[in-house]
Amino acid sequence: MIHVYLDDMRPCPKGFVAAHSAEECILLLQECEVGILSLDFDLGWGQPDGLNVVHYIVAAGRYPEEIYLHTSSLSGKKAMYQLLYQNKPEGVQLINGPMLYDTLQKISNTVQE
Question: When you count CB atoms within 10 A of the terminal residue's CB, does the N or C end of the chain come out lower?
Answer without folding.
Answer: C
